[in-house]
Amino acid sequence: MMTAILGFGGFVLGALDSEHPQRSDVQEMVKAATRAATITRQLLAFSRRQVLLPSVLELNSVVSDLTRMLGTFLGADIQLSMRLDPKAGRVHADRGQLEQVIVNLAINARDAMPTGGRLALETSDVMLDSSYATRHPGVTIAPGRYAMLVLTDTGKGMDEATRLSAFEPFYTTKPVGQGTGLGLSTVYGIMKQSEGFVWLYSEPGLGTCVKLYLPSVTDPLNEVPPPETSPRRGHETVLIVEDEGTVRALAGRALQESGYTILEAPNGRAALELVRNQATPIDLVVCDVIMPEMNGREFGRLLALENPRIPVIYMSGYPGNQVIERGLMPPEAPFVEKPFTAASLGHMVRTLLDRRSPFKGDETAPLTTGLPDSNVMGLPPF
Ligand SMILES: Nc1ncnc2c1ncn2[C@@H]1O[C@H](COP(=O)(O)OP(=O)(O)OP(=O)(O)O)[C@@H](O)[C@H]1O
Ligand SMILES: [Mg+2]
Questions:
Q1: Please, how many CA atoms are within 13 Å of residue 74, restricted to the half-sphere of its CB?
Q2: Domain 54-217 superfamily per CATH
Q3: Do 74 and 113 meet the contact criterion of CB atoms below 8 Å apart?
Q4: Domain ranges of the chain
Q5: Mutation test of ligand 1: which of 119, 172, 212 has the most ligand atoms closer than 8 Å to its C-beta?
Q6: Which of 73, 150, 184 to mutate to test the pocket of ligand 1 (most atoms within 8 A of CB)?
Q7: Which atom of ligand 1 is nearest to the CA of 156?
Q8: Which of 2, 58, 74, 202 is geometrically suited to a Cys-Cys bond with 339, CB 3.0 to 4.6 A?
Q9: What is the CATH number of domain 237-377?
Q10: How do residues 211-260 score in pLDDT, each as one tens digit?
């Protein structure tokens, strides 16, 4: 659902000029959908099923890259300040997760300052010795150097009961519909997964301070460069098999705008019929894994009997490893997680088509390397 709302919302936004009276309505819609998509991701992160791409990152650069975004959603009444110590150094973490931690904490700070205030972000490096560890029983703290990020707000703070329960999943003091209570539990889960930890200091009326510690590393930066923004175009025929009409239309539209000819089928049976009876050959299939009648894996098997040369991209709202564990798609098959963006799907389609026949694409550029998007996985090496 989120894929459809975000995708079509994006199309409408792109079509409306900045003065259009309905533009802000659509913008609000897209914002709400983004929030809903985030919540889904939080649930997945909390249950530790998310696919991670940890790399060596400069903590300061992760924080400063978020400045613009934070400024936008904090609004004009909240003053954002940053003090980034160049010595804060490097950490080994998944960038998306680290961003999620910071964003969740900043959202909490914003909610605690409904009439405005200040949010300060500071980084530094600290040395924790074994006596520090013994002073914090119940938490495993390896002595050593840590990169620290501190967020301090001037909001309403927390009473003791709230402070003690704040990290529990689904604990919220916000009205129904405004908080899921997953923000801090997600932060906790991610920090733990990254071998770091988090402390919370808060007093009613005095604001809140959250300290995050991540083990420092000295390895060279090794983040995979961000994907090129728009995928290369193509003219091939792509069949989209998906029972959800809106997602099917969205995927179709996204690929159509990149030049592809699109065929659609609501289920595996109809899709196989198209493959058999289609005058122009089908070059690639994009297929949902959970469909009534026939799941993705079964469809893939029957398709291979018809024509083993057609590559299939599987898509699902569930993480790839889960879908594979449940036998819904073949292991190691190309996979794209919903909600996907037009660009991530486009990259994946182009990459597979190029690999099948390098000279059929619009351009004669060499094969792309590297993963096209962080929510795309499962491409075996070239
Ligand atoms: N910076 C803060 N200032 C005051 N109270 C806070 C702050 N951060 C968290 N809290 C309290 O801790 C509770 C739990 O926070 P958490 O982020 O887990 O959930 P939430 O913000 O209520 O909902 P969600 O993050 O899922 O939208 C909040 O409801 C709030 O009472
Ligand atoms: Mg929150």
A1: 27
A2: Histidine kinase-like ATPase, C-terminal domain (3.30.565.10)
A3: no
A4: 1-50, 54-217, 237-377
A5: 172
A6: 184
A7: 4
A8: 2
A9: 3.40.50.2300
A10: 999 999 998 888 765 554 677 899 999 999 999 888 888 889 889 989 99
